[in-house]
Amino acid sequence: MNKAVVTRFAPSPTGFLHIGGARTALFNWLFARHHGGKFLLRIEDTDRARSTDEAVAAIFDGLDWLGLRGDEPAVFQFERTPRHAEVANQLLASGHAYRCYATPEELAELREQQRAARQPMRYDGRWRDRAPEDAPAGAPFVIRIKAPREGETVIEDAVQGRVVVQNVELDDMILLRSDGTPTYMLAVVVDDHDMGVTHVIRGDDHLNNAFRQLSIIRAMGWEEPTYAHIPLIHGSDGAKLSKRHGALGVDAYRDEMGMLPEAVLNYLLRLGWGHGDEEILPVARAIELFDIAGVGRSPSRFDIKKLENLNGHYLREADDSRLAALVAPRVAARLGKTLDEKQSDILVQAMASLKPRAKNLNEIAEGAEFLFKNCPLDFDEKASALLDDSARALLAKTADVLQPVQFWTVEAIEDAIRRVAEDAGLGLGKVAQPLRAALTGRTVSPGIFDVLFLLGKEESLERLAAAGHATVG
Predict the structure, then answer these.
(1) What integer pLDDT is reported at residue 2 of this predicted model?
(2) Which residues face 301 on adjacent strands?
(3) In angstroms, rounded to a whole number, what is the distance separating the alpha carbons of residues 248 and 283?
(4) How far is 236 from 240, CA to CA, in rounded Å?
């Protein structure tokens, strides 16, 4: 690859960063990184009625979270309107475009005739070869491209392979509307050219657009980019991805579902691209391996359980301080209070015990909640069932054995609890179960020795005493 690679991600700011868009951005970013090129961002905000500042912010926020930042400041398409109009007028002057004076009523009638005749609905070129003098004085007009009418247009797509369209199927699309504003088709081509984009990597729903956009590129004598149209993401049932398959916006995976960005990136990478049997692909490894040749032609299916399992892996690998900082707001939201500095330190210590069994940040927050609750605890139904009279007697013995423990270490705690079990002639599990219920109010928690250690001696004994005297069930 001789020429420096330049890729781009060009979302429309009409809502959140779609999970499919995030994968497109990732593929563009990885391809540029793999080849030592540039990854650029463009906000396609020409639809002024639907584009919002909030959506622009949401897109940048999602990309930042995933680490997919552009190598240059983002281009805003609307700001380039004069340049788009300039190119349309150049095409007009060179004879590759023409003024069309057809009225909306005439075009509506044409569509109705084509519909009745069961013909493809496309503009019939009625002003293509007419002289502008034939138009009524001062009549509004649009500028249309003179699309090729004979032969065929071929795209050697890096993903789809050789794709051919007969030129008779291409219509003379509008470049500049009657109010002087450019169409999407024109703006995209001009922006890609001016930004130096060498590889257009995007969803295969844009494949038909490529043939129409090539007519502009060739009319201007510009270098054609390499096209790579990647299949869309489908739901687990094979249907087009929709809300019923799960969250669609990247922000939901971060905020509501508690995913880590590296897990989402790894999962999106494996949706439609692969390298042997490697499932765990950190970013550095992905950059090393990624190329378009590994992208398949078939739509990939989104599987939330695979994403959760992958997220669990990255949780276990994550730094405890980083995890605690991500979990703390979720714990605070559950408790209705902010954690103080001491509690934040406890949360960091708790990560080693909490993260092995969790699949997302919400599960870690749920598992950590017991550490910061006030005594006496609320017991769930299963915990209450465990705390019968014999269990409370066992809790009292446990408290007696723990009371003289001088150095509150996991090893010292384990030694004490094992002595309780031996003295009572019980398996360790039979002691741990009511102990867990008394200390957490639940029947699921980190290991019981870790629970006691994290709570500290004073808090542990207070909870045991409260559970021993509480009326439960």
Answers:
(1) 64
(2) 234
(3) 23
(4) 9
Structure tokens, 359: 């699949």
Output phi, psi for 222, to 5 deg: -90, 160
Catalytic residue among 3, 240, 243, 337: 243
Class of domain 381-469: mainly alpha
What pLDDT was estimated at residue 127?
A: 92
Q: Which residues are annotated as a binding site?
A: 243
218 contacts: CB under 8 Å, gap ≥ 6: 224
CA quadruple 410, 416, 418, 420: dihedral sign = negative
- SS3 state of residue 273: strand
Binding residue numbers for ATP: 243
3-state secondary structure of 26: helix
Q: What is the pLDDT of residue 3?
A: 79
Examine the residue annotation and report whether 243 is marked as an active-site residue of this protein: yes
Q: What is the pLDDT of residues 61-96, one digit of tens each?
A: 999 999 999 999 999 999 999 999 999 999 999 999
Closest CA to 353 of 229, 470, 436: 436
**Can you read off the two tokens belonging to residue 279?**
């499932």
The answer to whether the 80-230 and 381-469 domains have the same CATH topology is no
CB neighbours of residue 303 within 10 Å? 15
Element of type H or E holding 401: helix 389-402
Mean pLDDT of 312-341: 96
Can you give the residue ranges of every domain in the chain?
80-230, 320-372, 381-469
Structure tokens at 332: 């605070």
The whole-angstrom separation of Cα 449 and Cα 409 is: 9
Domain range 80-230, its CATH number among 3.40.50.620, 3.40.50.2300, 3.60.15.10, 3.50.50.60 = 3.40.50.620
Task: Tell me how crowded residue 171 is: count the other CB atoms within 10 A of its CB.
Answer: 17
pLDDT tens for 215-243 read 999 999 999 999 999 999 998 888 888 77
What pLDDT does 82 receive?
97
Q: How many CB atoms lie within 10 A of CB 404?
A: 7
Interatomic CA distance for residues 153 and 383, integer angstroms? 70
